[in-house]
Amino acid sequence: MDAIQASERSESGDPGRSPLANRLLMQIPANRAEEFWYLGADYGAGIVVSGAQSLSAVSHHKDELAERPLMVDRRRYAGAKRPSGTMLFTRSWIETQRQMNLPVVLTDSGYVAQADRSALVAILEQTVRVGTGVTAVLPVSSSWLTDDGVKHLVGEINQHRVPVALVLEHTADPLSTQWAVAGLKHLLEQARSPVSLLCTDLSGIGALAHGAAWAAVGVTSSLRHLYPADSPGPPYGTPPAKYAIVPRLLSFMKVERILEGWAQTQQHDDLVEDLWRCACSECGNRTMDRFATCADVSLSAHNASILDDLQQQVTSPASWTSAIDGALGWYQWIEDEYHLIWEPPRFMNAWLPRSRR
Ligand SMILES: [Zn+2]
Questions:
Q1: What is the CA(154)–ligand 1 centre distance, in A?
Q2: What is the 65 CA–ligand 1 centroid distance (Å)?
Q3: Cα–ligand 1 centroid distance for 305 (angstroms)
Q4: Which of 190, 205, 211, 213 has the most CB atoms in a 10 Å sphere around its CB?
Q5: How far is the CA of 179 from the centre of ligand 1 (A)?
Q6: Which residue, 129, 126, 128, is CA-closest to 108?
């Protein structure tokens, strides 16, 4: 029987049974797949190759597919002319992933706009029809995380009982508000099938700590969330801004800002350099001013290494809160010692328990 005709429901209803050895993945663009292919390979981080050409990019590495988790996200849902989720999946897209034995087969879903229940249901119903081992990609307006939205979202996911991978839409950071994080937490608690995140950023670590099956963090800003159709996002100019994670600040920070902090330590003998020195496997204790001139792949290898460390450390909601507290303490330290008022990223406050805000 044609695999795509199989009608049984997915049986992978338990996140603990996820086929992924390492639940954190790096999401890379298909048109730069060769450049980023070995990112995190040393410690088994998986990759999600993204874009229309992702299957073709992966086919060049057929012999290596067993070595680390690998997925393909077509991202048909992105861009100004994105189709609606009511559009049918492409059979060959799903069949080819199965033939390649990819650990998770991702649907090539269209977009689910605010309150567009027919698009949501169309994606979930199609996923049920294509059978076991397929995860429904749900590229949704962030409004689906409001109280009313998430109630419907949970209801439909639980009715269809298929694993889902959310892609959250926002002009900057979809998880920068308390209501959005509360909605995601509610979904992770209430969904009776695995919930994962594609195209996310540091909040992916928080989502894993709260029960997400896996999370894929984008190597570029444009792969760290979904830009609205009328706001296509970077690159605004050439070259696009570079962001590196400053481990103690738990933040993707513009390299220019890192240089600003580094410059302060060079001008004032009493300021320690440690904040800007990185002991990750890529940096080898070098200082972060190197990001101004290093290759993109070296900067991304630093980010991947820090994310891997974080994933090891953050294993529960309490340890995620503790990591945020530590970072907020360092932001305060910068204000006190450097006299620089840098606003911490908004996701930090959004993730703090309600009693703490
Ligand atoms: Zn580093």
A1: 38
A2: 27
A3: 7
A4: 213
A5: 33
A6: 126
pLDDT tens profile 7-62: 333 333 344 445 676 699 999 999 999 999 999 988 888 999 999 999 999 998 88
What is the CA(223)–ligand 1 centre distance, in A? 21
Distance 189 CA to ligand 1 centre (A): 33
- First-to-last alpha carbon distance for the chain, in angstroms, is 55
Pairing of strands 243-246, 251-254: antiparallel
Domains belonging to the chain, first-starting first, are 3-223 (3.20.20.70), 243-356 (no CATH)
Question: What distance in angstroms lies between residue 181's CA and the mean position of ligand 1's atoms?
Answer: 28
Pairwise CA distance, residues 243 & 223, whole Å: 13
At position 255, the amino acid (one-letter code) is: V
Report pLDDT digits (tens) over 275-289. 899 999 999 999 999
Separation of alpha carbons 142 and 149, rounded Å: 9
CB 285 within 8 A of CB 279: yes
Alpha-carbon gap, residue 352 to 325, rounded angstroms:
9
- Determine the distance separating the centroid of ligand 1 and the alpha carbon of 140, expressed in angstroms: 33
- Ligand 1 centroid – CA 328 distance (Å): 20
Per-residue pLDDT tens over the stretch 79-123: 999 999 999 999 999 999 999 999 999 999 999 999 999 999 999
pLDDT digits (tens, 9 = 90+) for 193-206: 999 999 999 999 99
Close Cβ partners of 230 (under 8 Å, ≥ 6 residues apart): 80
